[in-house]
Amino acid sequence: MAVTPVGNPYVESSDLVANYPGASEALAERIDIVGVNPFADSAARATAIPTPTEGMMSSLNDTDAVERYNGATWKPVGGKVLQVVSVTKVNAFTTTSTSFVDVTGLTASITPSATSSTILVLAKIAVNPRSNTGASTQLLRGATVIGGGTSVGSRPSAMSSAYFNAVFGTADVSTNFRDSPASVASQTYKIQVRIGTGTLGINTTGSDADDVGSPRTSSTITLMEIGA
Asked: Is residue 22 over pLDDT 70?
């Protein structure tokens, strides 16, 4: 039995028939090491490969991720987008709160496939303060506020803030933040808003009149898992 320059075994014409099973087994074992073996999920992989060898590759059907074992852990191959979760809020929301409150329906959850992955959060919020006042947005992972500025004195932290001068239409406030949860547990991200005075509307104009000049808009939050 001979091997190729990269170590894959093969049967030569001079090999005895009795050597064929050994060569076949060696080739199968070599494929297990250098091939991309498919599994339903990481649990199925752990059962099939309890002691992986550095350099082994696998694909997981539940996350559509290709991973390589680096000698200590399975890591996604390449710095690419591994999965995308997006939620669009199409109905209206209003609040008079001067403290941050959840925007109902503007929440999304994602389960990272590796602790080394980061989550890129993209959001577009259609806001209308209905008066001359300021409005602010805030991003949370679970109960933790992320992505805001540093508060100074009475000036609070926020993801974004804008002052509106009697806006009757809606203005899109966009935000983005790359988060590092360092976990393979499900992560929930949500948007909160608050108003300076009066009423803040989401996906609705200031007048909200029943005519073509007062459209109902939409807001979106998108989560993208980025492989290390």
From this structure: no
* Residue in this structure with the two tokens 């990272």, named with its chain if needed: 112
Alpha-carbon distance 76 to 39, whole Å? Answer: 14
CB 173 within 8 A of CB 124: yes
Q: Can you list the domains of the chain with their CATH numbers?
A: 1-34 (no CATH), 38-77 (no CATH), 82-226 (2.60.120.1340)
* Whether 12 contacts 22, CB under 8 Å: no
Residue 76 has which token pair?
Answer: 């996604």
Extract the tokens encoding 111: 């389960």
pTM of the complete model: 0.68
Report the alpha-carbon distance of residue 119 to residue 79 in Å, rounded.
Answer: 12
Q: What is the pLDDT of residue 63?
A: 78
Q: What is the pLDDT of residues 67-125, one digit of tens each?
A: 888 899 888 776 678 899 999 999 999 999 999 999 999 999 999 988 889 999 999 99
